[in-house]
Amino acid sequence: MPLKFFLPALLLTVILAFVSLFVGVRDVSPLDLFAGAADQRDLMVLVASRVPRTVALVLAGSGMAIAGTIMQMLARNRFVEPSTAGTVESAGLGMLTVLLIAPDMPVIAKMLVAAAFSMAGTALFLSILRAIPLRSILMVPLVGIMLGGMISAVTTFFAYRFDLLQSMGAWASGDFSVVLRGRYEILWVAFALTIAAYVAADRFTVAGMGEDFSSNLGLNYRKVMALGLVIVSMVTACVVVTAGVVPFLGLIVPNVVSMIMGDNLRRSLPWIGLCGAALVLVCDIIGRIINAPFEIPVGAVLGIVGSLFFLYLLIGRRNRVA
Amino acid sequence: MIEVSGVSKSYGKTLVVDGVTLSLPKGGLTSIIGPNGAGKSTLMSMIARLLPMDAGSVVVDGLDVTNVSGDVLARRLSILRQDNHLTARLTVTDLVTFGRYPYSKGRPTLEDRDHVERAIDYLGLADLRHRFLDELSGGQRQRAFVAMVLCQDTDYMLFDEPLNNLDISHSVSMMKLLRDSARDLGKTVVMVLHDINFASCYSDHIVVMRDGRLFLQGTPTDIVRQEILSEIYGTEFRVHELDGNRIATFY
Ligand SMILES: Nc1ncnc2c1ncn2[C@@H]1O[C@H](COP(=O)(O)OP(=O)(O)OP(=O)(O)O)[C@@H](O)[C@H]1O
Ligand SMILES: [Mg+2]
């Protein structure tokens, strides 16, 4: 990986993170801060809300982008990502289950329940794919979206019956304005998992070449599938529990990076993580300034950007090996 | 030595490989020939543990392929299948380097790099090495896959129709390359071929499959005969002796 490009990109992301710290309803000026002129309340806002929010954005952004990449390698399809494979919806069902049965669980336990559900949902998705003999490229995300639709229908049904539609609605569109100190730290688990993904990068690349190539190279395909499943589900669950659904990120970023530098994950994963973080930061900043003092949730901004990009992929890459 | 004993495979009710027993000696080049649907690819995939068998066993140098860890076998035996389609976008160098995965687990050493360079060189891919596989022609891609398998540097190398998509000059150099690695480096090369004349001129041993069964095996002199070929394929053949080789014509 050419370091001479990576470092500037890293710098740009850091600048974005910095900007993100100082955008918001309350004007906290960086100059005041460094001059020591910032008052106590500014500092409070910064420490309790702005810093957690920015950190959460970075962790969730890179986590979802990397989770998307791994899904694409496992499903061997460019169009899948946690929100087109039933993963996210299953995590939602898990959240609902927690709300119904044990609403006072600590965050980490909530995350684990959500992760267990999303693991089951994603495994179901992957086994459906295995069972479909002739899987055309577009069938795969369609199956995922249908599965996701079915799972969220179940969720909605029970949420409606138990009067929890409101609380379920809150996470349906990723929103980082709710992120406060003490309520986002679980995302460090997602970060640890993305590091694990990087360590295992070559395994995922080989798995992305398919089961036959993997066996030929002596890779235990099932084990790698299971590892990927755990990483994708846990990362998704962490993000869903803290901020809600961040859609399309796992689709846009891996595809753009792959077009430019290919799929050797050892090389591309750092870029994917970085671009994921940068893209969510940008979308979040846009969401905060476009309609200030009100906020548009980052999920909504990404939804728009993402659907356009999805269309572009469908139309623009029709005549390429997808 | 590869010992195949009583290997069978069926899909639903159709038996596609029917109790094949066969032993392939170490060293040399063996061709497997036979009509479409004879079960050649299925047999080869089972030998390389890509496909589970319904009955029988395959033992490679004393290792039972169904039990031995994939990792160990990957340093003994490699296979290139008939159709290869990658969704992952890799460059030629990336792909070939993954041939070293069984040894380096993705952290290629200098020695691994040497293997990669040699394989790229042997298959004339130097100018294409930074291209993505989806930007290559069919024959160029096929050469890249073969380079990857060569790079794996196993004692046993199985190729299912390695000449797919290759022009005549590349077919000849590929056959020479594989024969030389059998002769000079002591490798055991097994390949499925449709071109009888390549099989005749380059093989030490020819195995004929028909209807899922082992039909015949022997040296090119034993197999490349008018009446035998005509029976295998149900087509008229004429066999000529040319420069010490047996050449079949069938037009
Ligand atoms: N997945 C499958 N499901 C059902 N039948 C199959 C499957 N794979 C192969 N077959 C059948 O098994 C038989 C043997 O197939 P195989 O691919 O081994 O033939 P082959 O000798 O390699 O032929 P070719 O020369 O065309 O490559 C064929 O009749 C084929 O239709
Ligand atoms: Mg075949």
TrEMBL record, chain A:
Keywords: Cell membrane, Membrane, Transmembrane, Transmembrane helix, Transport
Membrane topology, as annotated: Multi-pass membrane protein
Residue ranges that the Swiss-Prot or TrEMBL entry lists as coiled coil: none
Main location: membrane
Pfam hit, one: FecCD
Signal peptide, first to last residue: none
Entry's localization field: Cell membrane
Keyword Ribosomal protein attributed: no
Transmembrane spans: 54-75, 111-132, 138-160, 186-204, 224-257, 269-290, 296-315
Superkingdom in the source lineage: Bacteria
Family from the record: Belongs to the binding-protein-dependent transport system permease family. FecCD subfamily.
Name the record gives this protein: Iron complex transport system permease protein
Organism: Neorhizobium huautlense
From TrEMBL, chain B:
Keywords: ATP-binding, Cell membrane, Ion transport, Iron, Iron transport, Membrane, Nucleotide-binding, Transport
UniProt xrefs under Pfam families: ABC_tran
UniProt key word tRNA processing: no
CDD domains, per the entry: ABC_Iron-Siderophores_B12_Hemin
Membrane topology (UniProt): Peripheral membrane protein
Record domain ABC transporter: where: 2-236
PROSITE patterns noted in UniProt: ABC_TRANSPORTER_1, ABC_TRANSPORTER_2
UniProt GO molecular function: ATP binding
Signal sequence residues: none
Ion transport keyword on record: yes
Principal place of residence: membrane
SMART domains: AAA (SM00382)
Subcellular localization: Cell membrane
Transmembrane segments: none
Protein family according to the UniProt entry: Belongs to the ABC transporter superfamily.
Protein name: Iron complex transport system ATP-binding protein
